């Protein structure tokens, strides 16, 4: 039986601050969902909707974006991960800006993260229920960008960024809910181009031909998904919130004011869409 309302959260690195602005407006206005699926930054920042922590993603990213313990070249050289496992996924969510695991566990909303199995090249959809250390590892796996992150080993899988295999899991959600809301982090004019240095990237993953195939064809699959989303939106089958203007953002964003700016665009776009969204739902 299909559940009533689902929410799909695209990734996009620090463009995920846009998503944070959108979901904070949802929480403030009691826009609730039965199912949420997040990819990469959509998982890392979007999970705060299950713990009902308005403003948390913006707060800790502004606080730590300049901290070398959080992310950067030093972490990459030392650990193989651009975003530091011990600090960004350990100290921050448990000590410095704690995740509300009690609310997370009690909230009936089902939150699923998407990762990529580097052996098969297929997406892995995993529901996180408790907001504990194991759930945070699944979020980290969903957000682990190829080349600048080591694969995360969980269960029988070796996992990387879910955006490689299913950047916008709208089909997954349509199979589960009657009403689907999609939050994108690219504006309507955007279409993805082939990856730069794809031959070097493929060489780095020479032992994983299925992952190579995903990376080489990602732009094709992504653009086809955007075309499908446009068609579904025109037909009234889904509701889409996307940036009202292009958002430029570095992989490692060190300017807190720019993070605030991206977040504010998300809030504004969500507020402007609020009445139409309520009618759709």
From TrEMBL:
Motif, DGA/G: chain positions: 161-163
Residues spanned by motif GXSXG: 38-42
InterPro entries to which the protein is assigned, alphabetical: Acyl_Trfase/lysoPLipase, DUF6363, NTE, PNPLA_dom, YjjU-like
Domain of life per record: Bacteria
CDD domains (alphabetical): Pat_hypo_Ecoli_yjju_like
Catalytic residues of the enzyme: 40 (nucleophile), 161 (proton acceptor)
Keywords per UniProt: Hydrolase, Lipid degradation, Lipid metabolism
Chain positions of motif GXGXXG: 11-16
Domain called PNPLA: residue spans: 7-174
Signal peptide: none
Keyword Hydrolase: yes
Identification of the protein by name: Patatin family protein
The species this protein was found in: Holdemanella hominis
Lineage: Bacteria, Bacillati, Bacillota, Erysipelotrichia, Erysipelotrichales
């Amino acid at each position: 039986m299909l559940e009533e309302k689902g929410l799909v959260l695209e990734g996009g690195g620090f463009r995920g601050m846009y998503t944070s602005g959108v979901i904070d407006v949802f929480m403030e206005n009691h826009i609730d969902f039965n199912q949420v699926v997040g990819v990469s930054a959509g998982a890392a920042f979007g999970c705060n909707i299950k713990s009902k922590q308005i403003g948390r993603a913006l707060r800790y990213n502004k606080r730590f974006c300049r901290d070398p313990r959080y992310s950067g070249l030093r972490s990459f050289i030392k650990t193989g991960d651009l975003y530091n496992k011990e600090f960004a996924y350990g100290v921050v969510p448990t000590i410095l800006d704690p995740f509300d695991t009690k609310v997370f566990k009690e909230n009936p909303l089902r939150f699923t993260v998407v990762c990529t199995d580097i052996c098969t090249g297929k997406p892995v959809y995993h529901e996180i229920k408790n907001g504990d250390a194991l759930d945070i590892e699944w979020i980290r796996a969903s957000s682990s960008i190829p080349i600048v992150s080591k694969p995360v080993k969980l269960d029988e899988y070796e996992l990387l960024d879910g955006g490689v295999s299913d950047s916008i899991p709208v089909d997954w959600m349509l199979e589960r809910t009657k009403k689907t809301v999609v939050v994108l982090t690219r504006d309507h004019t955007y279409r993805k181009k082939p990856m730069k240095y794809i031959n070097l990237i493929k060489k780095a993953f020479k032992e994983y031909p299925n992952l190579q195939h995903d990376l080489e064809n990602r732009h094709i699959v992504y653009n086809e998904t955007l075309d499908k989303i446009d068609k579904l939106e025109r037909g009234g089958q889904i509701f889409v919130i996307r940036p009202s203007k292009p958002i430029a953002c570095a992989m490692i964003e060190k300017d807190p004011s720019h993070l605030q700016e991206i977040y504010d665009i998300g809030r504004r776009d969500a507020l402007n869409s609020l009445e139409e969204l309520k009618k759709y739902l």
